[in-house]
Request: fold
Amino acid sequence: MKLKKIILYDEESIPEIKISDLVNFIKDNFSVELVIKGNFFQKLENNDINSLAGTRIFDIYKKYNTFEPEQKTIELERKLCTNSSFMENTTKIEDAKNISDVVMYDGFEMQKFIRENINYITNDTLHIIFTNRLTCTFDDTDSRYHGRAVICANPAIISTTGIIEAPAKSKEFYIQAMESKSQGLDISTVKTMHKGEFLEYHDKRLSKVIEGYILQIIFYNITGESFCEYLDCRLNNAHWQRDLLYSQIEVSKLCKKHQNILDMQK
Reply:
């Protein structure tokens, strides 16, 4: 598929996205028209807010089923649509006593919702929505939901919370964090010990990492494939933070195969 236009929907509550830098990155690599729009969810009507609230998940071991959201779920969604920085006040995974306390969404249901709320989608125009909502997808191999940084296809979703939470930190970090919690301590000291090994909220490296996810989305829409098996490629689907930072920050380029494909698009 030949792309002519890419529309980026910003998440203004996360300035580390650096939308103008991403525009320059795309222009340097693809001959497409770029359009920047504001937060996709900010101007939703009440009925749409109700529908978006209906994409939430509360039990990571149960596949999504259509449900009627409770009023408190709708009210939270309304607050997030009005001011997405309110997400900062919700429970983070590292602080949750129960994973159901974390605000999570079925990524494919959210994608379906977005598609229904974009007036006109064509094959030559790619919509990329940035959000601080945590997108998840259900994996049949272990019968549970997992956080996702990116939902490809069109429209595509990049979850800044997913980038931080989905790729796992080191085993050493989790062991030390569990030890601290068992002693009634928070994990701030553990995070300091492992500083730089993983992305944190409002991390300055976020924009550079997002470049790789944008490449994955564009390659998926051009070739039907988004990921590369090699760590030395920005299309690598990293499951560990160390691999994510290696591919996107240290290597910061495509493998030969995918660079050739990119060159053919220019």
About this structure: DSSP finds ten helices and nine strands in the chain. The domain at 5-265 is CATH 3.40.390.10 (Collagenase (Catalytic Domain)).
